[in-house]
Amino acid sequence: SQQGEEDPQALSIQEGENATMNCSYKTSINNLQWYRQNSGRGLVHLILIRSNEREKHSGRLRVTLDTSKKSSSLLITASRAADTASYFCATDTQGGSEKLVFGKGTKLTVNP
Amino acid sequence: DTGVSQNPRHKITKRGQNVTFRCDPISEHNRLYWYRQTLGQGPEFLTYFQNEAQLEKSRLLSDRFSAERPKGSFSTLEIQRTEQGDSAMYLCASSHRGTGTEAFFGQGTRLTVV
């Protein structure tokens, strides 16, 4: 079963606007990651945030984590057409498992 | 290119046939993962190797599925007696230190069972 739930399922914005995607998860985690997937391709790692961190930045990306609400958000600032992709959050599971549990993703379309 | 390589990229097979996929991870990575992704869904974990040892298997990995990683290098995923429900993208990933670090994914093998 999938732990993460991204919201919204789809998002369409104009180039230059900011895009915010949210992720909720169910169980305690050690860390949370965001990945991007272009249509029909593999996943590309964007950013990892640990459970003791609240916010992390990487270039135009800003990720927040609220462990009390079991939620995370990914903000892409000044979006570009090349940011068009599906975005997934992935969590580990405490207890020694090595698997990542992915949500269903947010499909982002950035219109030029 | 030193990324994760998967072959073939596409496979069309008839129901009941066996198929085998190959994954070559990043050479210094000792952890290798297989995931399956169906349309509109996120990837679902299938199995995990640390070096040559298969340490975790999902309940999704029925007895028709087998994965190996001989010598801790490349890995193969075989599906026997394929069913239409096996149609999916099969993704391989590798990492150096487990879920506390990023996983590097291959481009995937898209399987279509007709």
What does the model show?
- The complex is a heterodimer of chains A (112) and B (114).
- In chain A, the strands form two sheets. In chain A, strands 2, 4, 5, 9, 10 and 11 form a six-stranded mixed β-sheet that branches. Chain A has a five-stranded antiparallel β-sheet with strand order 1-3-8-7-6, with no helix packed on it.
- Chain A has no helices and eleven strands.
- By secondary structure, chain A is mainly beta.
- Chain A is 0% helix and 54% strand.
- The mean pLDDT of chain A is 92.
- In chain A, a hairpin with a 5-residue loop joins β4 and β5 (43-50).
- Chain A has strands at 5-7, 10-14, 19-24, 31-37, 43-50, 55-58, 61-66, 71-76, 85-91, 101-102, 106-111.
- With 114 residues, chain B is mostly beta strands.
- Chain B has strands at 5-7, 10-13, 19-24, 31-37, 44-50, 53-57, 65-68, 75-79, 88-95, 104-105, 109-113.
- In chain B, strands 2, 4, 5, 6, 9, 10 and 11 form a seven-stranded mixed β-sheet that branches. A four-stranded antiparallel β-sheet of chain B has the order 1-3-8-7, with no helix packed on it.
- In chain B, a hairpin with an 8-residue loop joins β9 and β10 (104-105).
- The radius of gyration of chain B is 13 Å and the shape is globular.
- The termini of chain B are far apart.
- In chain B, 37% of the residues are buried.
- Chains A and B meet through β4, β5 and β10 of A and β4, β5, β9 and β10 of B.
